[in-house]
Structures are given as structure tokens and as C-alpha cells.
Write a structure and sequence with these properties.
about 65% helix; globular; mainly alpha; 19 helices
Length: about 450
């Protein structure tokens, strides 16, 4: 009897690869996408654009056209750089050129002018990369958590993600900087490094056999560091996990890590169109870690950190303390699969605490998916204990209430138009701490601050 290989489509849609868990995860991601689309549509429906977003798009289009210092031919209005960039010799201290290229790439296909009347159309192109990053991060989170903790752990992590106000705001760019790409890059860098380390004991040629993972790790590092320079901390973290997990193959792990760094360097260099002088000046003016050690002595800063965590994901205010206590008193939960995401999340929260400006907000957002994985791991361990029924009831009840709250808060947005908020600074790339806002106002108090339509004729956009 001759055996015939399955077609590629049949191999993909088999029961092992694509079954009920995948369908449920896809449904959750569609709900997540619907929430993001709701925010985007409400934002574009105002006919105005935040100046931060317009500056980002304008600068990116200039780079694509190779005319960084000349006006955009599609517009008679070119927003001036914010003070943070003007005071840094014209270089963005927090983001590489890659960040601007991603923001503007979809708009290269727009054939018309960038006018406020057509914002409802070309505005979707501006949001498309971040909607895609949000979906990919959610899929990656579910894949990692499911591989570590099974289906139940995967769905706990994915539910926390899909209804997180912080993640939804970043994905929809709802008066927030689009750091969702940086979060996906950091998450991918850490867990790709861990995955690579687990393959080093296979009897194969290390570099050639792992070339796909090397490229993936390099792209993840480039996306993380290129979107926020301070995420350079993911490089030593990824190296540390690789060396720890492969104690007898550390040479191979080091070679793979260096190869991935070379790929990341090449991607970032390509973002400057292989112009070494501009690339060097951008790196020289980068703010890698703006640490303010005095923050540890400020009592109000601890409250702000807690409030920020609650606004990004209210369920974590209850789930995280329970998970930490369980991790501390139950030895069974203290294994690498739970410890690794906890270490990364804790480090990001500390770095976010000691960098209380723009970088700090990025670190706090990066910490979220790792916290989701950690809580999912502890939940999966509790589900396997003798108190499974009680643990399941508590977790399901918390997640259900969390999801209902998130959707109800989104529904409130449609009842009133966005108004200017004095909680956002007027320059393009600096935001204040969000901790002074109530949890119940996590969406409705994040409207655009200064907008293009408010400061210029509509036809000039």
C-alpha cells in the first residue's frame, strides 16, 4: 500500500493542530479585536487626530520618501518635533526609525490627500499595524501559556489579555503611544530564547538547524529595542535564560544569541536605510535607561504603581496577590515555567517604577503579558489540586466579572464624545502617570488631548 502525504491545507487543519481549543482561542481574539475596533472607530469618528499620532505618521512618511527634512507632499502642515526631540538635537531619545516606519508603512498605499474628511478611511491604515500586533501578541500569549500549562492555563492567560484595558488602549492607540509592538517583541524575545535553549540537546548542527528560531529571535529583539530603546534589557535577560537552561551547551547558546543579535542589528540598521552616520547619531542620542533612583523614597510613587497596574488590568489587583501567596507557600508552584515570567514581570515593574516618565509606562505595559502567564500557571496548578472545584469557581467567576466590566466600560464611550483631557501633556511624546484616574474610568478618561483638527484647517491635513 502506498502512503500519500496530506496536502498542506489538510495538515494544517487536522485535529491535533486546529481543533476546539484553537476555535475558542480564535473567538476570544475576535472579541478582543472587536473591542479595539470599537475604540478606533470612535476615535476616527471625531474627525480629528492626536498631534502625537500625526507627528509619528508624518515623520515616518518622510523617512520612507527619503526626505526627512522636507515637508510631506501630501500636506501643507508638518507638525514640529516635540520638546523631548528638539532638546536632543532632533533625535528621538526613546524610539528608533523602525518605530516611525511601522507607523506610516500602510499609508504608503493611500492615493489621496490626508484630509480630515477622509480620516475615517485612511485612519484605519494608520491603526492597522497595531491591531495586527495586538492579535499576534494574544496568539503568542495563548500558545506559550497552553504549551506550559495546558488548555486551562492558556485560556486564563488569554482571557486576562483580551479584556485588559491597558492592552486594548495600546492596541487601539487610544490616547496612548503604540507600544504594543514593543510588548510583542519583548515577549517573543524572552520565550523564543527559552524555546531555543530547549532544542540545544538535539543531535543536530546547532546554528543551521535553528536558523528559523535565530531569525525569529533577532526580529523580536529588533522590534522590542527599535520600538523603545530601554528594552535593550531584554537582550541580557534572553541570554541569561538560554545559558541557564543549557548548562552543558552554553557555547552553542552563546553562538545562537550572538547570531540573533546580529540579525536584530541588521534590521535596525536597515530601518535607517543603511546610512551609518545617521544610525550612529541615533544610537548616540538614545536614552537607554533614564533611571531616577529617588523614586524609591517617594511614598506616592508606590501608590501610582498600584493604580497603574489596576488600570491596565483590574483583575490583577486580586489575582496577582493570590498567585504570589500561593507561589510563596506551595513548593509545587516554584518551577521554571512559573518563575521565569515572574522574574521578567518583576524586573519590568521595577524598571517602570524607577523610570517614572515615558519609559516607565512602556515597562509597565511589557510586564502585563508576563504577569498573565504567571497567574495562568498558578491557576493551572490550583486546578490540579484537591480544591479544583473551588479554584475553578473562583477563577471563572473573577474572569467573567472582569470581562463584563471591560465590555461595559467600552459601551460607555459611545454615549459621549471625547473631550480634551488635562492629564495628557501637550507635547507629542510625553505623558503623565495615569494613576490619578479612577479604575472605572479606564477608557472614558483617555480621550485625545491636542488634535490636528483643533489646531489647523481641516483641509490642510
Amino acid at each position: 500500500m502506498v502512503k500519500h502525504s496530506l496536502p498542506a491545507v489538510d495538515r494544517f487543519f487536522n485535529r491535533e493542530r486546529f481543533g476546539k481549543p484553537q476555535l475558542l482561542a480564535g473567538a476570544l481574539l475576535l472579541v478582543f479585536l472587536a473591542q479595539c475596533v470599537w475604540l478606533v472607530s470612535h476615535s476616527l469618528g471625531t474627525g480629528s487626530m492626536d498631534l502625537r499620532e500625526w507627528y509619528r505618521i508624518n515623520a515616518g512618511l518622510h523617512r520612507w520618501q527619503g526626505t526627512v527634512d522636507t515637508p510631506d507632499p501630501h500636506s501643507v502642515f508638518s507638525p514640529t518635533p516635540p520638546p523631548r526631540i528638539r532638546d536632543n538635537d532632533g533625535f528621538d531619545p526613546d524610539h528608533s526609525a523602525l518605530w516611525y516606519l511601522i507607523a506610516s508603512a500602510p499609508l504608503l498605499v493611500w492615493p489621496g490627500h490626508f484630509q480630515s474628511e477622509s480620516l475615517v478611511y485612511w485612519g484605519w491604515l494608520a491603526h492597522a499595524p497595531y491591531l495586527m500586533f495586538g492579535l499576534l501578541l494574544g496568539a503568542s500569549l495563548w500558545y506559550v501559556a497552553r504549551r506550559l500549562y495546558g488548555n486551562e492555563g492558556g485560556f486564563v492567560a488569554l482571557t486576562l489579555y483580551c479584556f485588559s484595558p491597558g492592552i486594548i488602549r495600546a492596541t487601539a492607540v487610544w490616547s496612548a503611544e503604540p507600544e504594543i509592538g514593543a510588548v510583542w517583541g519583548a515577549f517573543g524575545a524572552i520565550f523564543t530564547g527559552i524555546a531555543v535553549a530547549h532544542t540545544l540537546y538535539a543531535p543536530r548542527e546547532v546554528v543551521l538547524w535553528n536558523w528559523r528560531r535565530i531569525v525569529l529571535l533577532g526580529i523580536s529583539l529588533a522590534l522590542a529595542v527599535g520600538s523603545q530603546f530601554s528594552l535593550i534589557v531584554t537582550v541580557p535577560l534572553a541570554f541569561a535564560f538560554m545559558l541557564y537552561l543549557a548548562p552543558t551547551r552554553r557555547g552553542a547558546a552563546l553562538v545562537i544569541g550572538l547570531a540573533a543579535c546580529a540579525v536584530a542589528f541588521a534590521v535596525l540598521f536597515a530601518a535607517y536605510f543603511f546610512q551609518p552616520a545617521e544610525f550612529w547619531h541615533a544610537l548616540r542620542h538614545a536614552s537607554w535607561l533614564g533611571i531616577t533612583w529617588q523614586t524609591f523614597g517617594m511614598a506616592g510613587a508606590y501608590r501610582e504603581l498600584l493604580l497603574q497596574l489596576g488600570q491596565n488590568c483590574p483583575a490583577m489587583l486580586l489575582a496577582l496577590p493570590v498567585a504570589l501567596v500561593t507561589y510563596a507557600i506551595w513548593p509545587r508552584t516554584r518551577y521554571f515555567g512559573n518563575t521565569a515570567p515572574l522574574i521578567v514581570a518583576a524586573l519590568c515593574l521595577v524598571l517602570g517604577f524607577v523610570t517614572p516618565h515615558y519609559q516607565g509606562l512602556g515597562f509597565q505595559l511589557v510586564a502585563l503579558p508576563f504577569l498573565f502567564v504567571f497567574v495562568a500557571g498558578i491557576s493551572a496548578d490550583l486546578f490540579e489540586s484537591k480544591q479544583r472545584s473551588l479554584a475553578m469557581a473562583c477563577v471563572v467567576g473573577l474572569l467573567a466579572a472582569y470581562a463584563i466590566w471591560s465590555v461595559s466600560e467600552l459601551a460607555r464611550i459611545g454615549k459621549r464624545p471625547p473631550t480634551a483631557s488635562n492629564h495628557l501633556r501637550n507635547n507629542c511624546l510625553e505623558t503623565t502617570w495615569l494613576g490619578s484616574w479612577e479604575f472605572s474610568q479606564g477608557y472614558s478618561d483617555h480621550p485625545p488631548a491636542r488634535t490636528v483638527a483643533n489646531e489647523m484647517p481641516a483641509a490642510a491635513i
